[in-house]
Amino acid sequence: MLRHPNIVVSSAGVFHAYHLARGVQAAGYLQRFITSVFNKYESGIDKSKITQIQLAYVCAALIRLFPGSTGRLASYLIGDDIYDRIAANYVKEADIVHVFNNQGLQCLKVAKNNGAITVVSRSSAHPNVQAKILSLDVKENNLDRQINKLLIERHLAEYELADYIFVPSQFVWRTMIQEGVPERKLRRVHLGFDPDRFYPGEKQDDVFRIMYAGGLSKQKGISYLLEDYKGLDLPNSELVFVGDEYPDAKEIISTNKGLFRHIRFVPQEKLTHFYQQASVFVLPSLQDGFGMVVYEAAGCGIPLIITENVGADIRDEEDGFVVPIRDSKSIAEKLLYFYHNQHIAKQMGLAAHEYVRQFTWGNYHNEIKGHYDEIWNEQLL
Asked: Mean per-residue pLDDT for 41-48?
C-alpha cells in the first residue's frame, strides 16, 4: 500500500488558509501548518502541528502604518518576505509544500532542493492581467509602481518553481493561460462557504436595500456602484456598504458621504443578518478571483449582480445578472429591473440559494484531497 504524502501548508495571512489546513488535516496528510498568527478559536487543526511566525506579522503591521497605499504594498513586499524566509526552515521534510502566492519563494526553493512537490495558491487574476485591469482606475506614485514591479517579479518566480498552481475560478484560469502559464500546472479548486451560517431569513422591512460587502477599494469597483445608485434616485431604497475602506478609496468615500450607509466591520457570525435584510447583493469588482461574499449572499437567498471578472460560479439570468466591468449603465439597468420586479428578484435569490449549496467547505476539502492524491500518485509512478 502506498503511503500518503506529508504536506506543509504555509500562509502569512488568513485568506482560505485555515480551510485548506483543515482539509489537509481531515485527509490525514497535514505535517505542519505555518502561519503568522493563529486564531486560537479555529477548530479542526491539530495545535501541535501549528508554527506561528509572529515577527513577520508585527513587521508587516508596523510597515502598514506608513500612510496611503505605499504602506500596504510595502508590507506585502517586506513583511511577506520576512515570513517566507523564516517559514523556509520548516518545510525540509515535507513531500508536498503548499504556499500562498507572494509568500513562498524561499519555501519553494528549499522544497525543490529536497525533491518535494510544490504548489502555489493564486486567488486573483494573473498579476500582469491584474495590473493592466487596475491601471485605468488606480493611479500609482513612483514608489508604489516600483514596489508593484518587485511584487509581480516575485509572483512570477513562484510560478516558475511551482509544479502546480491551484486557482479558484475559470476567470483566474483564463488569465493564467493568457499570460503563458502552462496548462499542465493549473488545478481548479472550488472554494466554499458555510451554509449553516449563511441561510435565508425574514426581511424585516420593505426598503429596497442594495448591499455590498468586502473591502472598499477601487479594485472592487465601488465607484461605479455609487455612480449608478446616485443616478437612479430610487424612493424607499438604501445602499449599504459593509467593510473597511482602503487608502485608495478614501476620496470616493468622502465625496459620496451621505449617499450610503457604511458599516465598517461586522464579525462573520453577525454578517448573516445584513445579508438577510438586503434586496439585492452587488459585487462590481474590476477583478476578483473568487468573491466568497457572493456565495454567502446567495446562501441567504439574495439575488446577485456581479461583473464578468468575479470568479464565483453564478448563472446569469438565473441567480441574478453578470455584467461587464466598468459598465455603470448595465448595473443601473439590473438594479432598476430588480426594483420594479421584486417578486422575480426573490425567485432568483431562492434559485441562487439552491445552486450554491453545492459549494461547501466540505466539497472543497474533497476536491483538494483528490488533487493531492492524483499528483502524489503521479509522483510515485
From this structure: 91
Task: Quote the pLDDT of residue 381.
Answer: 64
pTM of the model: 0.93
Domain layout of the chain by residue ranges:
7-192+360-380, 208-356
Q: Identical fold at 7-192+360-380 and 208-356? A: yes
- The residue with greater pLDDT, 281 or 145, is 281
Does residue 67 have a pLDDT over 60?
A: yes
321 phi, psi to nearest 5 deg: -135, 145
- Provide the residue type at 381 as one letter: L
- CA-CA-CA-CA torsion for 324, 250, 15, 95, nearest 10 degrees? 90
State pLDDT tens for residues 256-280. Answer: 989 999 998 888 888 999 999 999 9
Among candidates 262, 270, 333, 275, which has minimal Cα distance to 303? 275
Percent of the chain with pLDDT over 90: 83
Distance CA 65, CA 70 (A): 10
Q: Angle formed by the axes of helices 17-27 and 361-380, to 10°?
A: 60
**For residues 288 and 167, what is the distance between their CA atoms, to the nearest angstrom?**
12
Residue with the bigger pLDDT between 264 and 159: it is 159
With 90 as the cut, is the pLDDT of residue 248 above it? no
Which CATH number, 3.40.50.300, 3.40.50.2300, 3.40.1000.10, 3.40.50.2000, labels domain 7-192+360-380? 3.40.50.2000
**Which burial class, exposed, middle or buried, applies to 270 when counting CB atoms under 10 A from its CB (0-12, 13-18, 19+)?**
exposed
Q: Which residues contact 239 (CB under 8 A, 6 or more apart)?
A: 209, 210, 212, 225, 226, 229, 259, 260, 261
| Distance in angstroms (rounded) separating the CA atoms of residues 292 and 312 | 7
Asked if residues 281 and 200 have their Cβ atoms less than 8 Å apart, the reply is no
CATH class for the domain made up of 208-356:
alpha beta
Is residue 1 predicted with pLDDT exceeding 60?
A: no
The mean pLDDT value for 61-89 works out to: 92
Which amino acid belongs to residue 165?
A: I
Judge whether 11 and 42 are in contact, CB under 8 Å: no
Return the C-alpha cell found at 216. Answer: 472598499
